[in-house]
Write a structure and sequence with these properties.
Blueprint (H helix, E strand, L loop, with lengths): L1 H16 L11 H26 L6 H15 L3 H4 L16 H4 L1 H24 L2 H22 L4
Helix pairs in contact: 2-3, 2-7, 3-6, 6-7
Bound molecules: heme C.
Length: 155
């Protein structure tokens, strides 16, 4: 609890100074975990829309294009920014296993695999072809799943 209180106090100080900081680089671990979760949710939301299109449940080809663009954008964020040291399980509600940093080259490799997969998805989205989008989505999903299996706490 004591650690949490100290962290919370540090977070408050950082938030107070946030106005003068670069927006993408929150300096305190709690905010960094939150930012990571926001990025991950963006990925999740994108994949959901793509899945909806593949299953013909409403989302349009334009939705797929927007989702692919969002996933591509997230994939270009430096992995050191997404997974800064000191944001493993125990910080806020982080579900990032310490193994992620112990096997950094592997983790970074997974993250870097996202970009080419996301670019394929963008190309497929442009075609509007359901089968092509489905294949590209599967390839992206495999990257997500592989990293989660290794480095995200199972609930
Ligand atoms: C390099 C590893 C890695 C890759 C690649 C990755 N994730 Fe994650 N993801 C994580 C980790 C670690 C967490 C736990 C983060 C935390 O709780 O701070 C997570 C958490 C999440 C969450 C939960 C966020 C929350 O609200 O707590 C979602 C949703 C998610 N990822 C979706 C995706 C999707 C979709 C993809 C692929 C398009 C993806 N992730 C790719 C490592 C990865």
């Amino acid at each position: 609890m004591r650690t949490l209180t100290i962290l919370a106090a540090a977070a408050a100080v950082c938030i107070a100074h946030a106005g003068s900081m670069a927006p993408a680089l929150a300096a305190d671990p709690l905010a960094q975990v939150k930012e990571r979760e926001t990025l991950m949710k963006k990925l999740g939301g994108g994949m959901k829309a793509v899945g909806g299109f593949v299953k013909n449940e409403g989302p349009t080809a334009a939705d797929v294009q927007a989702a692919a663009a969002a996933i591509t954008e997230v994939s270009t964020v430096d992995p050191r920014t997404v997974f800064p040291e000191g944001t493993a399980i125990g910080v806020g509600d982080s579900e990032a296993k310490p193994e992620l940093w112990q096997n950094w080259t592997t983790a970074e490799g997974y993250w870097n695999d996202l970009k080419p997969a996301a670019e394929q998805l963008t190309a497929a989205a442009g075609s509007g072809d359901r089968a092509q989008v489905a294949r590209a989505m599967q390839a992206v999903g495999k990257v997500c799943q592989t990293c989660h299996e290794d480095f995200r706490l199972k609930k």
